[in-house]
Amino acid sequence: MKTLLFFLVATVMILGQSNIDIKLKLPAIFSDNMVLQQKMEAPFWGKAVAGEKISIETSWGEKSETEVQTDGNWILKIKTPNAGGPYEVKVSNASSSIEFKNVLIGEVWIGSGQSNMEMPLMGWPPNDLIEGSDDAIANSTNTNIRLFTVAREFSIDEQFDCVGNWVESSPQTSPGFSAALYFFGKKLYEELKIPIGLIHSSWGGTPVESWIQGKYISQHPDYKDYIQKLEESKPHLENLKNWIANHPTIDMTSKQGDDMWKNLSFNDEELSNINYDNSKWNEMNLPQQWENTEVGYFDGAVWFRKKIEIPNTWLNKELQIHLAMIDDMDVAFVNGVKVGATEVTGRWQEKRVYKIPKELVNANQLTIAVRVVDTQGGGGIYGQDELMKIHPVDSNEVISLAGKWKYLPVAEYLSGKFFVYNPANHEFFNRPKELINVSAYSPTTLFNAMINPLIPYSIKGAIWYQGESNTGNPEAYKTLFPMMIKTWREEWKQGDFPFYYAQIAPYKYGEGTNSQKLREVQLHTLSVPNTGMAVTMDIGNPLNIHPGKKKEVGDRLAMWALVKNYGKKLPYSGPVYKSMKVEEGKAILYFDFADRLEIKLRDGKNNFQIAGKDKNFVEADVIISGNELIVSSSKVKEPVAVRYCWSDTDEGTLFNEAGLPASSFRTDDWDD
């Protein structure tokens, strides 16, 4: 039910059109401080009254004019000079004009994907931290690096606009910006010394199919009926859109800083009271994320309440309450009194432990109330059952809090706004039902809302960091990922622009995931023209899916661009497996980018395995011979196949002279 973020754009447009004087509109990607791609015909587009003349005039001496089409849309192009600025751009019709100031001409790149692209320069404390973050932020002042972040939003229809604006890089603007994309742009600037424009559009946890345009995804056998079902569901979704829109709102889009989430009121203060009647609330078993329940995909505020009985020996003693992990903010009450709160985003992995003053422990029954606020991805109180408990601070005697809790959602968070539901009549439970569930994790929805509003803005290329959410079906990713690249290129109409991506790092996903097969698909995607891959086999963290070495990721992606697009002479790829032959009981492996190969052991292992025709893989011995590897084992007399780092968690051991790692690979195609 985390649905219909798309309706907000429509609502804003309807409200805006109530003022008939607004006749000229451009999407948000055009703003003060923007960067335009140098030496090309940069498209400008927008909406105005049909038949009007639209003109553009720039301070570098270019002019252009067009007529608004019958549907109210217009587009024209302006020639951009060599990198430089600042300039001004003026867009006018007969009755109004819009002026963009402090415009630079330079190199423009888009960064997209899931959480490892979204992860900001300031990290997500306390567990997901960016190495070197403090220094990077402190030294991020650079008027020649400009940042644009697309606000998270999804839609079932292609959207004209998004929420965002261009800002200059500084310690005030960089902390919340994509770390990988920032370091990518910083490396480009250090080498090129020209303005760099960075457009960030990503959403943590999302699969690749969310970023593919509808007419393409419908060609995939797994989704051939999806678009038709989406069309059939539109009346139901429209009904839900109107129902949600008819509620009071709290706009968070203009708020910033850690304090922005504190002391939020949804007219729900009485829900913490000890004697509040929650008998008509639904029940949920905790701990678990509410996406796994009837609530479904939902961002917003949800109250949980539970009454427990405590023994006489606990009376008038200080207690400690454990609420497992909460995704991602909370305020906790006992007997109507606040006992703790975590009202800062990014603490979704942090165990909640609060003290209950002995003054509150004056009866055998305690009423616990917790308000959880989630603004993206999974939400709720989650973890292992044993992490939900209560006990005296000086005793190991424990009462479990796992099990049934009453719950009531009181506000829905969409596109930077809370839509407040009346708790008195339990409005959420009357929320209109959908024919199908639509969310940011559904096919096409992020392309529609977070990519389409950027097309056809002038760009040099794109970088991408995603794949973790598709590890469950690498076979589908084999066609979906190249399809997404094709989607973007065909819709942008700028040819096969550069598309560079980060391979997912080793991580302990759990038994049966086999993420190495997803990495294999990413390796083979290098066959798509004008692509490049930054290998992260040596800079991951098998115990954290959000590794902190984002500077290395950004730098490695930038090296592809610097060599392939800007003519620099730099190392840019680790060894890439090419072929194998068997001689005298040994497998000889050949590689591209193989100057002075080196093996760096991990826990005493080289992470190579070898097998004969019995397909029984054993640890292998490896000898470097020039630019070749000689792989063997006394247990395998007639080698047939070699595998390297062929698991979820094996980390890179094979490097070239530049210190760049090889991707995991296998020489066989056996179906395991």
Could you name the key traits of this structure?
672 residues, eight-stranded antiparallel sheet, 10 helices, single chain, alpha+beta, eleven-stranded mixed sheet, disordered N terminus, 37 strands
Structural class: alpha+beta
Radius of gyration: 28 Å
Q: Note the main sheet.
A: 11 strands, mixed
Task: Please tally the β strands and state the result.
Answer: 37
- Sequence stretches where pLDDT stays below 50 over 5 or more residues: 1-22
Quaternary structure? single chain
Helix content: 10-25%
From the spread of the alpha carbons, the general shape counts as globular
Quote the beta fraction.
Answer: 25-35%
Number of H/I helices? 10
Through-space gap between termini: 37 Å
Task: Give the overall average pLDDT.
Answer: 94
Plain-language structure description:
- It contains ten helices and 37 strands.
- The longest helix has 20 residues, at 226-245.
- The radius of gyration is 28 Å and the shape is globular.
- Strand 26, helix 9 and strand 27 (531-534) form a beta-alpha-beta unit.
- Strands 1, 3, 4, 6, 7, 8, 9, 10, 25, 26 and 27 form an eleven-stranded mixed beta sheet that branches.
- Helices cover 16% and strands 31% of the residues.
- The relative contact order is 0.12.
- Helix 4 crosses helix 10 (550-564).
- With 672 residues, it is of the alpha+beta class.
What is the gist of this entry?
The protein has 672 residues and is α+β, with helices and mostly antiparallel strands. It is 16% helix and 31% strand.
How are the secondary structure elements laid out?
Elements: H1 7-16, E1 35-37, E2 41-47, E3 53-58, E4 63-67, E5 73-79, E6 84-92, E7 97-113, H2 115-118, H3 133-138, E8 142-149, E9 166-169, H4 179-192, E10 196-202, H5 214-217, H6 226-245, E11 249-251, E12 282-286, E13 288-289, E14 300-309, E15 319-327, E16 329-334, E17 337-342, E18 351-356, E19 365-374, E20 380-382, E21 388-392, E22 399-400, E23 403-414, E24 417-420, H7 445-451, E25 461-465, H8 474-492, E26 499-502, H9 516-524, E27 531-534, H10 550-564, E28 576-583, E29 586-592, E30 598-599, E31 608-611, E32 618-619, E33 621-625, E34 628-632, E35 641-644, E36 654-655, E37 665-666
Parallel strand pairs: 1-7, 7-10, 7-25, 8-10, 25-26, 26-27
Antiparallel strand pairs: 2-5, 3-4, 3-6, 6-7, 8-9, 11-24, 12-23, 13-20, 14-19, 14-23, 15-18, 15-20, 15-21, 16-17, 16-19, 21-22, 23-24, 28-29, 29-34, 30-36, 31-32, 31-35, 33-34, 35-37
Helix pairs in contact: 4-10, 8-9
